Amino acid sequence: MAERVKGILKDEFYLDQTFDNVAHAKRAAKNLYNEIRLHISLDYNTPNMVYKLSA
């Protein structure tokens, strides 16, 4: 499982991002997932964009 997560993070961060610790990696992944990465199931919006539109 850990190798799969590392691979996903490497793909999402284009292999140029390094993390000081696990907490730093989790914050970066959360930011990427919720604020940067577009989701097909959300009509190519981020979760934060959809949340702001529904509020």
Helix content: 55-70%
**Ends distance:** 36 Å
> How much of the residues is beta strand, in percent?
under 5%
Structural class: mainly alpha
- Broad shape: elongated
Low-confidence runs of at least 5 consecutive residues: none
Whole-number total of structural domains: 1
Estimated radius of gyration: 13 Å
Query: The biggest beta sheet, please?
Result: none
In round numbers, the mean pLDDT is: 78
Number of strands: 0
Task: List the total number of helices.
Answer: 3
- Write the element-wise H/E pattern from the N-terminal end onward: HHH
Pfam families: rve_3
Protein name: Integrase catalytic domain-containing protein
Domain Integrase catalytic: 2-47
Features:
single chain, 55 residues, mainly alpha, elongated
Topology:
Layout: H1 2-12, H2 22-36, H3 47-54
Q: Short summary of the structure?
A:
This protein has 55 residues and is mostly helical.
Can you put this structure into words, describing what you see?
This protein has helices at 2-12, 22-36, 47-54. It is an all-alpha fold and 55 residues long. The model has no long low-confidence stretch (mean pLDDT 78).
